[in-house]
Amino acid sequence: MVAIQPTPPATGLKLSVVERKIKRVGQDVLRMGALVEESMRWSNRALFARDLGALERIKSLEKRIDEFYRQIEFDCVVTMTLNAPVAEDCRWLSALMQLVRDLERIGDYAQDLAEIGVKLFPYPPHPCLPEVEAMARRAQGMVALSLAALVELDPTAGARLKGEDDAVDDDHDRLYERLAHQRDVVGPVEPIVLLVLAIRHLERMADHATNIAQRASYIVTGRRG
User: Fold this and answer.
1) How far apart are CA 18 and CA 9, in angstroms?
2) Is residue 6 part of a domain?
3) Helix/strand/coil for 184
4) Per-residue pLDDT tens for 97-106?
């Protein structure tokens, strides 16, 4: 993965202390993002491939994700407090602090989805499951795109991801209508309840991915939204 770094200084000038620290923090953010993406892949295995071992793998990843989250927040706060960064550097640091919260929440939702997969294991696959899987793939793709936007510092990423987020919202609403209004249910309703929770988690993952892309745009433009 390409190393993230602040806007390069003029030719022949070295990075300042703050710029070097921002570069290191940015690289940690991308490492954290890679762990979150891996966690999402394992959550899909738990939900759709009925892999009971996926949850333990995610728990191990979640510990590392949380460690990155705490370290990155600490490094940003220390840099802002002790190194008197200029306005552009403050924009970088504040955006990185906010987006790692989004990454951490996506990791939490991945673990929640794996736990749902374990609870669904005793039941036959629900007819809606292929559509839920398509929604999960879309949300996973959004996370990958948001991290690419951060690497490339794409000022248009926030607007583009908003369109993808709308599609995930449509997936959620359509699936919710089918699950919530299912009639003549034979047997336990637990699988339906669990799938309603699953699509809600996926919808929130997509929201957080959109936030990350918007924060990448903010780093470049200084404008929110």
Assistant:
1) 12
2) no
3) coil
4) 999 999 999 9
